[in-house]
């Protein structure tokens, strides 16, 4: 094989290798950045995800525990004002159970490159969870109304609507109280677990 032929073979191999790398991580593709971020964040070295983050040097990943079954499922992509919001479900295997956490991975442009705004991504869990709950609630009522007469207790449409509004107000207030109560308990539990242990002095 001549030198020129050998050089061509090496060049072609290098181009193929580079193309393969680009398929794994495309800096110009927000979804690729999001996928690479979560792959690293759910690995044994979560700090590797910081290279894909906004302000990665000042924000911890903060995912408790690890399993090689942990994964991130990316779904519908929504673009608003130059930002990308990617529907995401994090699935964590903990104590033999799959924990599913819905959120939206927020990808923003930083100095010409796409980066994950992890702080905003974590804050989206509340909205995503509420949205999923409302979709399930609406779907359940729609299916019930399709096959069961008078699920709201009256045939009059206006009375049915008024009754539904009353029930929703009551149930939303109950749900709000329960959620805030549980959330407060979780915060207090975390504060207590991170507080320094008190040392009892002899004779005290």
UniProtKB/TrEMBL annotation:
Superkingdom per UniProt: Bacteria
Keywords: Signal
Name of the protein in question: DUF4468 domain-containing protein
Signal peptide positions on this chain: 1-18
Lineage, broadest ranks: Bacteria, Pseudomonadati, Pseudomonadota, Gammaproteobacteria, Cellvibrionales
């Amino acid at each position: 094989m001549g030198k020129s032929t050998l050089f061509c073979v090496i060049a072609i191999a290098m181009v193929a290798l580079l193309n393969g790398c680009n398929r794994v991580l495309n800096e110009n593709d927000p979804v690729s950045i999001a996928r690479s971020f979560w792959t690293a964040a759910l690995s044994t070295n979560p700090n590797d995800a910081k290279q894909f983050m906004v302000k990665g040097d000042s924000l911890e990943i903060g995912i408790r525990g690890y399993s090689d079954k942990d994964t991130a499922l990316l779904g519908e992509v929504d673009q608003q004002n130059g930002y990308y919001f990617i529907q995401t479900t994090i699935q964590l295997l903990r104590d033999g159970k799959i924990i599913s956490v819905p959120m939206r991975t927020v990808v923003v442009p930083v100095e010409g490159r796409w980066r994950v705004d992890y702080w905003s991504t974590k804050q989206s869990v509340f909205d995503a969870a509420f949205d999923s709950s409302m979709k399930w609630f609406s779907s359940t009522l729609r299916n019930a109304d399709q096959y069961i007469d008078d699920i709201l207790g009256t045939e009059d449409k206006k009375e049915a609507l008024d009754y539904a509004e009353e029930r929703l107000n009551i149930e939303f207030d109950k749900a709000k109280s329960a959620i805030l109560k549980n959330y407060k308990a979780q915060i207090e539990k975390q504060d207590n677990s991170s507080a320094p242990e008190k040392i009892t002095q002899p004779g005290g």
